[in-house]
Amino acid sequence: MAVHNREIADKFDRLADLLEIEDANPFRVRAYRNAARTVRGYPRSMSDLLEDGIDLTELPDIGDDLAKKIQTLVETGRLPLLEEVEERTPPALSELMKIEGLGPKRVRALFLELNIKTLDDLKEAAESGKIHEVAGFGDKSEEKIKERVEKFSGEAPRTMLIDAEEIAKPLLEYLQKAEGIKDVMIAGSYRRRKETVGDLDILITAKQGAEIMDHFTNYEEVEEVVSKGKTRSTVHLRSGMQVDLRVVPQVSYGAAQHYFTGSKAHNIAVRKLGIKRGYKINEYGVFEGDKRIAGETEKSVYDKVGLPYIPPELRENRGELEAARKGKLPKLITLEDIRGNLHAHTKASDGHNTLKEMAEAAAKLGYEYLAITEHSKSLAVASGLDKKQLLAHFEQIEKLNEQLDDIVLLKSSEVDILEDGSLDYPDDVLKELDFTVCAVHQKFDLSRKKQTERILRAMDNPYFNILAHPSGRLINKRDPYETDLEKILEAAKERDCFVELNAQPQRLDLTDEGCIMAKELGVKISIATDAHSTSNLEHMRFGIDQARRGWLEAKDVINCLPLKKLLKLFDR
DNA sequence: GCCGTTTTCGGCCCGACTGTTTTCAGTCG
């Protein structure tokens, strides 16, 4: 069973936590955290890299030592140093650090003074009033710990982007009403359009902060004010979302945007470039000595480190700085580049609208074409169509096409890939389709090898065109099924097949890393909404967000093509 | 523990807020 990058990264993070509690060299601690971030975000798995004989020290923040540790982890699943550290420092202490306000120093103090090793120990100590006796803790600290350990429910879940938008919208409207506000923007991973966000980072320009902070903390959805100052405040909303608000002067707006948009890794890399040129870069600007030499716009910040503007979606320190330096930043795809949608359902299977309604809605979005892709017969839960029903449905599509002026409906189907890798319709039916969208909908628990082989076998069918939602994951709900994505993409390239980036906000499948890998391997992508209603068609923008994070350009995406050229691609 | 277009040694991003302090450490982002 291959070790996931995520498992390796989690182990490094845990090791970093425990070492930090042991008061180890902070830079060594940081090295483990940096390595964890590199491994977690890397598009290919460490085990695949090792299998291909790639030297891991070529990865950023991985040196000789960590390369060896990764190799051991891949081979044995173990990290001996972590086990050694856990012998002397109770592993659950890293859990305690997840309580807001408890960092390594205070966790260590509680462990040494009161022998607190677990969350239960902490709860008991807080309730019996022992904590305020420890040096550095007072009554307030004890009270807060008591409250927070009570409410603590593990890792704070990340919110899907679409849900974050719903939370952000009324808050932004409310904030606009404050006196003296000029600009308002949401920075952070929200602006980088990450598929999920941990909190909202809101940035405001204004001369005075104090009244704005009062206005902010008085928002009716605020449940708890965590901290409140003149330039920065943090609250928790009733939804559970944390919101950080920062107020900066207008001259610092660009520097602040850059700083609070992140990612952290990108910022650090940019600041290092600044240091090389003798500049200090912070949220207030670019400084040469005490003199601010840039910072009113983001562009001015990049200017000073000799780079062109880098779009937020690329700011993950995944090679964008090098690409910018060489003038090789991608010309990222935009919503306007999209000419059609290649995955949609109607009432005929499990959609909510009629053919006509879907066609009109798609035409209204300015599309040239919309593919109708009802489920195939094996997917009974989604009212999959049998051969007869499908062909009858196609007749309706043809009839409707005769009436439609500004859009063409394509005859397709979301064809199930059965367990043995065969497709859910015989070839004499498949040949009636303009193209196929093929997908795994059952038997998610096959081994990685079997699942991969199943998909490769399906691609061997000459009528296979697009692999839909390639991992099957549902964000925060269902893990992806196990596959070797690289093998699948290589096979797709060989067989002239395509891979879908499913734009449903809960799917966003391919991931951004998957897009990067597909682009490197030369596999073209279909960004499609898998719409089950007319309003779902507008989810295309989430697919575009994800595609931009995945470095995709219009030329990498097949539904940026006019219809004639598109249809040619489906002739294998 | 990583890294190098001044360095293979000696650096490593930096500012705001809180609570417990009497001048600042710890935490957070």
UniProtKB/TrEMBL annotation:
Cofactor or coenzyme needed: Mg(2+)
Matches recorded under InterPro entries: DNA-dir_DNA_pol_X, DNA_pol_B_palm_palm, DNA_pol_lamdba_lyase_dom_sf, DNA_Pol_thumb_sf, DNA_pol_X_beta-like, HHH_MUS81, Hlx-hairpin-Hlx_DNA-bd_motif, NT_sf
UniProt catalytic activity: 2'-deoxyribonucleotide-(2'-deoxyribose 5'-phosphate)-2'-deoxyribonucleotide-DNA = a 3'-end 2'-deoxyribonucleotide-(2,3-dehydro-2,3-deoxyribose 5'-phosphate)-DNA + a 5'-end 5'-phospho-2'-deoxyribonucleoside-DNA + H(+); a 5'-end 2'-deoxyribose-2'-deoxyribonucleotide-DNA = (2E,4S)-4-hydroxypenten-2-al-5-phosphate + a 5'-end 5'-phospho-2'-deoxyribonucleoside-DNA + H(+); DNA(n) + a 2'-deoxyribonucleoside 5'-triphosphate = DNA(n+1) + diphosphate
Pfam family for this entry, one: HHH_5
Domain DNA-directed DNA polymerase X: from-to ranges: 3-316
UniProt keyword terms in alphabetical order: DNA damage, DNA repair, DNA replication, DNA synthesis, DNA-directed DNA polymerase, Methylation, Nucleotidyltransferase, Sodium, Transferase, Ubl conjugation
Location of the Helix-hairpin-helix DNA-binding motif class domain: 54-73, 94-113, 129-148
Subcellular location per the Swiss-Prot or TrEMBL entry: Cytoplasm
Record-linked NCBIfam families: PRK08609.1 (NF006375)
Function statement: Repair polymerase that plays a key role in base-excision repair. During this process, the damaged base is excised by specific DNA glycosylases, the DNA backbone is nicked at the abasic site by an apurinic/apyrimidic (AP) endonuclease, and POLB removes 5'-deoxyribose-phosphate from the preincised AP site acting as a 5'-deoxyribose-phosphate lyase (5'-dRP lyase); through its DNA polymerase activity, it adds one nucleotide to the 3' end of the arising single-nucleotide gap.
Protein name from the UniProt record: DNA polymerase beta
